[in-house]
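WARN retry 2 of 3 for item q-0093 after timeout on previous attempt; input resubmitted unchanged.
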Amino acid sequence: MIKVGDKLPGGTLFEYIEVEGEGCSLGPNAFDIAQATAGKTVAIFGLPGAFTPTCSARHAPGYIGRVAEFRAAGVDEIWCVAVNDAFVMGAWGRELKSAGKVRMMADGSAAFAKATGLTLDLSEKGLGLRSGRYSMLVKDGVVTQLNDEKGGGFAVSDAETLLQQIRA
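OK item q-0093 returned
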């Protein structure tokens, strides 16, 4: 499993782009993880899935609502990563009004989740292999803070906890 001091694994995440610009076409666009984090401070939070109860009511809204505080603390971008396709993440982002605040990144095949070791097997609930619930701070591609819910709950991966750690 990934830990503080580790470089993020290489790979690709996908984001549904609503407005064409800055080299991005409409629809799903692929982003190389190493290139997208190079020279930046990125807060990443992972969760089991778009439109799921805790994810929709508490986890994602906490980050969306505190984007100004994250930016004031030196965070360049906030990413929400889930094992969903880019179309679903885009629709969820529209519903949550995340545009310009949190990038809704799709890990459709769970490749990033598997590479980090932050997975959650929800096969018995009909959801298959998903991302576990976590938050991390990444500086220039290196993990500097990691809060892993270790398979369940919602106690340490919330926006407030990560903000407190960044400010400390």
